[in-house]
Amino acid sequence: MVENEKNVQEKIKLADNEQTEAEDRLASIEGQVRRYQDQNREFDEWAWRDIEEMPDLVVDFKKELYLKLIEKFSPIKDKIKSN
Questions:
Q1: Mean pLDDT, residues 52-72 taken together
Q2: Cα-atom radius of gyration of the chain, to the nearest Å?
């Protein structure tokens, strides 16, 4: 019984060590992500805009997406405005 209890305690200690190592790795990764985000911000500022203005404001590779969004959502926007 004593030997079995020692084995259980050793396994718990190993699991605790593995968890601590995993937490340390995660904290390191989170720190790297934060530093990257601080250095490579996508937006300098934000403001509410009409959806029709967006293609002229976004980066080139997003223009097509916004044109499709305008096409799909303009009828909904017009319906909301008319109510």
A1: 92
A2: 26
Longest dimension (CA), the chain: 79
Identify the residue whose tokens are 């509410």.
48
Token code pair at residue 48: 């509410």
Question: Quick check: 20 and 32 in contact, CB under 8 A?
Answer: no
- In tens, the pLDDT along 9-29 reads 787 787 777 888 888 888 888
30: amino acid identity, one letter: E
Nearest-5° Cα angle at 68, 78 to 60: 125
Q: Give per-residue pLDDT as tens, 25-54.
A: 888 888 888 877 777 666 677 788 888 999
Compute the distance between CA of residue 8 and CA of residue 10 in angstroms, rounded to an integer: 5
